[in-house]
## 1
Amino acid sequence: MIAIPPIHSGQVPVLLLSQPTDFSVQLREQFEQEKIPLRQLECLDQIQAALQTNPPQLIILDCAGTAVAGLALCQEIRFGYAGLLVAIASAEDEQTLLLALRLGADLALSQRDGVPLIAAQVKALLRRFTPVAPPKLLTFGGITVDASRRDVFFAGEPAQLSTLEFNLFWTLAINAGCVVSRETIHHELYCSSYNGYDRRVDLSVSRIRQKIGDDPVMPRYLKTVRGVGYQFVGAPG
């Protein structure tokens, strides 16, 4: 069994997006008992700011009472967040649970499951998907990919990649020399299957190339493999 790694100072593995309710209070208290740090936020802007500064291991989205708005938030969060996402709906709202899974949630629960069971399932999800000793720093010639700082550096200068752009670059860099399919990239970024025409990955690669000065015709780092995906071609430093 893989244990949840120790929580470092300032690290918040779980974010809860919810308005103040009896349910959110009970959930926070249960997580405190489980010794899992949880931070509650009340709007999408706060979540997006947190993703830029200290991305969590998991986000809990409370969809109860505002199913339509909650599902829209689920989709919006998934666009820029590749981590674990749990949606919680009201007691009788089975359709919301199904739609949440289709929109990118990794787990969809009902409030009727009860706070202790919800917390236990979230803890099990964290334990199951917490990577073991992931690499933090990769060097390729004059480029450094820093997972701790979540950016790419040239001669010490940051490229200032967005969260989504860094996640994409990291996916390619840790598979340096190998072709990574659009299907794999799409699943890593959005936790959903590639539909054959979604251009978000291609647009992200184009923005990364602009920021790192990589020529798409004669690339030093990001090579397009037509009909398949992308390949990181930088030589290890």
## 2
Amino acid sequence: MEKLFKLIRPFVHGLPPEMAHNLGLRVLRHGCLPPARAGAFPSLEIEAFGLHFKNPIGLAAGFDKNAVAINALLAQGFGFVEAGTVTPLPQPGNPKPRIFRLRRDEAVINRLGFNNRGLEYFVKHFTRRDKSKGIAGANIGRNKNSDDAVADYITGLRTVSPHADYVTVNISSPNTQGLRALQQRDALTELLSALQQERNNNVPLLLKIAPDLDDAEMEAVAEVVLAHHINGVIISNTTISRPESLIGKHAAQIGGLSGRPLFDLSTARLKRFYRITNGKIPLVGVGGISSAHDAYIKIRAGATLVQLYSALVYNGFGIVQDIQRGLAALLARDGFTHVGQAVGADATMR
């Protein structure tokens, strides 16, 4: 798989990023990409949010916004796939171009703006998934022009929760004006209180936060999350910061930065949140993972699960199997028989 992607990468990267992405989804959706060779790694199996994951490596939201290729994506070796972000009503998102590759940085900047076909279309396709293939979550957001953000999230939760293995509340995209304000204590308390009242089944509820929160803001988020018994936190979304080390010609573009330059920041915020909560809540580490070593660092920093996305742009789907093999080897090297034993191993060190 890796050799095949290296052959076709010049063609793929010759296309505009959004066109290449849509082509990749079409290939997956129509079964044109063979499934990964199944590998048996018992040490990677783990429980989180009351769910059993065959491995802790997930696909982050944003790749399959409309839930059209869940089965094919799980067949690439992911332990779980998160579809969305989906909003109650369809919306086109921000004007194009809105995705930019920073090849030399192995990064991506996007300002998509929750472009998706709405809940009705999302659920129609989400319900076609084969539950035996693995865990699938749904990531929900608010419409850009909505006058009532809380109502949008309630609608999203009510609609997707009967079908999804877990639901993620996305309040951290930088590409919808005012969205990140929902991370502030009072607004977050109002939102999570309303969602808890709406939740009438046992679907796990996760919250996705930004890496740009300062320590005081993170402590406030942690307090609210624990008080409302949220099942997990995803750390993190893309960043609006720009490391001085960026050399890509699109580095000044407006939007959220993802990929390798996000790794250190998102990992530091992950470790900080793990310490603030004393490991009481499962965390999902996201941001800049492109190798087994990266995934292992996230896990040792406090992540029970990890997700990737931008690395697929530069490495293809073969990276999923590479991370599985490499992570199992790293665990064995350090004397861990089970990935759960490594969670937070470095975060507890002072």
## 3
Amino acid sequence: MPNEAHNKELVRQSFDAWRAGTGSPFNLLAETAPWMIVGRSAASKTYPNREAFMSEVIHPFNARMSGHLVPTVHDIYADGDTVIVSFEADGTARDGMPYHNTYAWFLKMRDDRIVHAIAFYDSVEFNEFWARVQPA
């Protein structure tokens, strides 16, 4: 039986570390975990594992930023083995312009790891940023 409180706390701690610039929820991501980005953004598809997701989305995203993205969590819910996080994230792009987006992530947990993720966000904001800013 899943430990909802434990999973919720693990995810909360990972977001606290992300906010502080000392870690991120991606540290919980299992090597074989698929990550699906829903919608019609430039990055929308299912990435088959951690390496594909990090190399195709997270590393190029971070290379477009002048500092780290700072999340503000609104709510964290746990139901069974799934933790749902509603949050906003803000940062400054390499061109000096702000980046702001709103997210909802559905994270399936097993053995203290994220084993499957589904992410929703504002595709219009993401696409504008992705096309405007070239990675360093």
## 4
Amino acid sequence: MAYDPVSKRLFIAALGNGSLEVVDVEKGERIKSVGGLKEPQGVVYVPASKQVVVASGGDGTVRAFDAVTLEEVKKVTIGDDADNIRLDAERGELVVGYGDGGLAFLDPKTLETKGTVKLAGHPESFQIEPGTGRVFVNIPGGAVGGGGGVAVVDGPKRTVTTTWDLKVAGRNFPMALDTANKRLYVGCRRAAKLLVIDTTSGEVVASPDCVGDADDIFVDSKTGRLLVTGGDGPLNVFATNDLRTYSSVATLTTAPGARTALFVPESRTLFVAAPKRDGKDARILVYTIPD
């Protein structure tokens, strides 16, 4: 999901529906469904151009839409299984994970490819470190050693500098970065663990149990807490006093299979996507996270 704080529109890559769904948050209404997409997976809002960009795994395309009219303005093909996409505002680049193992760096104005990096396996969630341009990339399951791994990419130089083998757990999909405290948070599904990694050394300093089928993690910089959503249970809230010991301090009931989420810290709002299940239509659950 992606969010435009000016228009207060929420953009959802609806994988199962093959569409980009657009919701007016203030009205609580879906205002548009842009169809014809093949397995849309990643979506990002680009404030400078007022465009929303969608990566689709089914045909390997990256498409830019006018965020107001929702008309398609650009399209490129980068490769099979285009997945997560993020904006590196400092360097003026879009970064897209794709294929059997690659990152593509695109010009957000033209979608022209500025460079690529080869990885050991298909990338899932990744985070870009402000200042350095380092990109931490989740490569789940068997791609690195016997479990999952995190590839550390020098974004400006387009090279992999090292890989951290995750021996505690694997199937690592979601990720969040706390730059100020030099902590990388990785959610694993086998076993269901939240791994806490020191970004200076690559050491796993903590590995508390977390919700199963973890899919999104957010750092609440205001409170220092972590929000973890997963399809197998409630949303988990973790807290720490020393950045080495983490404990679950609260849970929030969501819905079966609800795992994809977006936290908007300015409004203290968490959006969670609940799939169509048990006789209930697909919907967005909205939570206000206390300070």
